[in-house]
């Protein structure tokens, strides 16, 4: 397995070892010219007490518990992958082993650079799992001032949770996926009814229940129209 994919078993291992409290936060600050900054935060702080004990074990519920060295290696692999992605720069990551909060951030030249980060991983998943996930996660039209978060649901997401034990499924009960997008221009409209526009009209937040997302009941897709 390519090293850059070690982050995904690591994330799954952390999730399955914690209680049903974690957040994955996706933040993008968009500039008018299409460039911007992206920050991804993996927040397990609500489960830090249990995780501190779990990290002392080799495995739990049949899942290997990642060590601090495993986590450091996984994050290094992510940084290495980002450094090889065209249009990505200013890559940084933070590790907080007291509160179990991990972040990776970078600047991007254009939104296609962000799509490039995940493209090969998605293509491998589609081939291996016979899924149909789109390789375009984001798009931005500077002429019409339209930003879109794309996502096409695939039933394989729902099927994957059925392979987990009842105990493992519980970790998703109070988990959330959160997206925050910030812009220079005010927001005119959003397509996702769960999305909330900030009082100054220059940011959009979408919080999705992880289990509802897995079951196809909620979606992260959103079309954000900005004013010219």
Q: What does this protein structure show overall?
A:
It is a single chain. The chain has helices spanning 7-17, 48-54, 68-83, 111-129, 155-162, 166-169, 210-214; strands at residues 23-30, 36-43, 59-60, 63-64, 88-96, 101-108, 138-141, 146-149, 176-182, 187-190, 196-197, 203-209, 222-226. β5 and β6 form a beta hairpin. A seven-stranded mixed beta sheet has the order 5-6-2-1-9-12-11. It has a four-stranded antiparallel beta sheet with strand order 7-8-13-10. A two-stranded antiparallel ribbon has the order 3-4. Mean pLDDT is 84; it is low at 1-10. It is α+β, with helices and mostly antiparallel strands. It has one domain. It is 31% helix and 31% strand. It is globular, with a radius of gyration of 18 Å.
Structural class: alpha+beta
Mean pLDDT: 84
Strand content: 25-35%
Counting DSSP H or I runs of 4 or more residues, the number of helices is: 7
- Quick one: biggest sheet? 7 strands, mixed
Low-confidence stretches: 1-10
* Spatial sequence of strands, sheet with the most strands: 5-6-2-1-9-12-11
Coarse morphology? globular
The helicity comes to 25-40%
Order of helices and strands: HEEHEEHEEHEEHHEEEEHE
Whole-angstrom Rg: 18 Å
Number of domains: 1
């Amino acid at each position: 397995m390519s090293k850059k994919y070690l982050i995904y078993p690591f994330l799954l291992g952390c999730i399955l070892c914690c209680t049903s409290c974690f957040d994955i936060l996706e933040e993008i600050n968009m500039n008018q010219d299409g460039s911007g900054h992206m920050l991804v935060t993996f927040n397990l702080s609500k489960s830090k007490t249990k995780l501190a004990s779990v990290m002392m074990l080799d495995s739990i519920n049949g899942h290997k518990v990642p060590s601090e060295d495993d986590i450091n290696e996984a994050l290094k692999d992510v940084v290495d992958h980002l450094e090889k992605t065209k249009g990505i720069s200013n890559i940084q990551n933070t590790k907080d082993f007291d509160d179990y909060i991990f972040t990776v951030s970078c600047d991007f030249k254009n939104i296609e650079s962000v799509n490039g980060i995940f493209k090969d991983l998605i293509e491998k998943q589609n081939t291996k799992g016979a899924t149909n996930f789109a390789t375009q996660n984001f798009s931005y039209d500077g002429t019409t001032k339209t930003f879109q978060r794309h996502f096409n649901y695939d039933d394989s997401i729902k099927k994957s949770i059925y392979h987990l034990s009842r105990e493992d499924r519980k970790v998703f009960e109070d988990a959330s996926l959160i997206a925050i997008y910030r812009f220079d221009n005010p927001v005119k409209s959003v397509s996702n009814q769960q999305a909330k526009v900030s009082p100054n009209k220059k940011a959009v937040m979408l919080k999705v229940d992880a289990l509802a997302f897995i079951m196809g009941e909620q979606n992260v897709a959103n079309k954000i129209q900005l004013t010219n």
